[in-house]
Design goal:
Layout: H1 13-44, H2 60-85, E1 96-103, E2 106-111, E3 116-117, E4 120-123, E5 128-134, E6 139-143, E7 148-152, E8 158-162, E9 168-174, E10 186-192, H3 194-202, H4 217-227, E11 253-258, E12 261-266, H5 269-277, E13 283-284, H6 301-314
The chain binds copper (II) ion (CU).
Length: 316
């Protein structure tokens, strides 16, 4: 995914990099300076030149020097860090708003017109304001090339913003260890020229800019499962992951727990729909409640139908 790391990938690159270089410079200066001083002292004050150690009692001048200089240096670091960080906390009023939704183990991005994608698409040169929503546990959204990173905390409203400065594709991933398939939360940002971006955004027929129209309903159903990260918890080959496999479900029966009572249900369209929109209504026996969250408002009715087509095809 990752292609380039230009200096102007976002409006924050210059500030963050400058701070980093200043701190790195100060650190290198002290590493080299202290090492040289140490070696000189070892040679000059070695035992056979100074058999009798001398005890030096305090020096106010030295004390002041080695208090004031480090204080000034950390204030310099603080100043640059503060100046680089403060604008990140002040998003502009106007901009392209998008909601980043993190859940185990997938990012989805929801645009103002309802479009949902699994990579982030943004217009070049326009402020992008991201509302960060964590559905289940702590996640953290990180775009290294843009020098932005922000924790996503369930129940907290947080935002992140930036202005993309150069067309291209960049890495985006979760940097808060969030469980078994944390590494699946790896995605990307695509920066497009404004006209291309708004044309893509207005086109409601394709979620991702790929040609889905030729694919069969079952193939498109599979793409829906990929887009929403269902496959982190469900396999297609009978393997038991966090949730039951797609294989062996459709057309058969399931033992589920409904409100504490066990019962048998037919795995049909209605059951699948309920499993996606209200996963805790029926808990498949042997699996944990609360792992799967509702996808109501994210996965559309048509997409549920496509998923059902895929489940039929898997169990043929
Ligand atoms: Cu995560």
């Amino acid at each position: 995914m990752y292609t380039a790391d230009p200096q102007n990938a976002s409006n924050f690159v210059a500030g963050v990099d400058l701070t980093f270089m200043i701190i790195l410079g100060i650190s290198i200066f002290f590493l080299v300076g202290l090492t040289i001083t140490m070696i000189v002292f070892i040679v000059r004050y070695r035992r056979n030149r100074h058999p009798e150690p001398v005890q030096n009692e305090g020096s106010t001048r030295l004390e002041i020097i080695w208090t004031v200089i480090p204080l000034a240096l950390v204030m310099v670091m603080f100043y640059f860090g503060w100046m680089g960080w403060r604008p990140m906390k002040n998003p502009p009023e106007e901009g392209m708003r998008v909601k980043a939704i993190a859940r185990m183990w997938k990012f989805n991005f929801q645009y103002e017109n309802g479009k949902v994608t699994d990579s982030l698409y943004v217009p070049l040169g326009e402020p992008v304001i991201i509302d960060l929503v964590a559905m289940d546990v702590l996640h953290s959204l990180y775009i290294p090339a843009f020098r932005v990173k922000e924790d996503m905390v369930p129940g907290q409203e947080k935002v992140m913003w930036f202005i993309p400065g150069q067309e291209g594709e960049y890495d985006l991933f979760c940097t808060e260890y969030c469980g078994l398939q944390h590494s699946y939360m790896y995605s990307g940002v695509k920066v497009m020229p404004k006209e291309d971006f708004y044309a893509w955004l207005a086109d409601s027929t394709v979620a991702e800019p790929v040609d889905e129209s030729e694919a069969s309903p079952a193939d498109r159903g599979y793409q829906v499962l990929v887009r929403f990260g269902c496959n982190a918890c469900h396999s297609s080959d009978g393997t038991r992951l966090v949730g039951p496999s797609y294989l062996g479900g459709w057309g058969g029966t399931r033992t589920v727990e409904t409100g504490g009572a066990e019962r048998e249900v037919e795995v049909d369209g209605e059951y699948i729909r309920r499993s996606i929109y209200d996963p805790n209504a029926d808990i498949v026996k042997g699996f944990n409640q609360g792992m799967m969250l509702s996808y109501e408002g994210m996965v559309s009715e048509e997409e549920v139908d496509l998923i059902i087509e895929y489940l039929k095809a898997v169990n043929e």
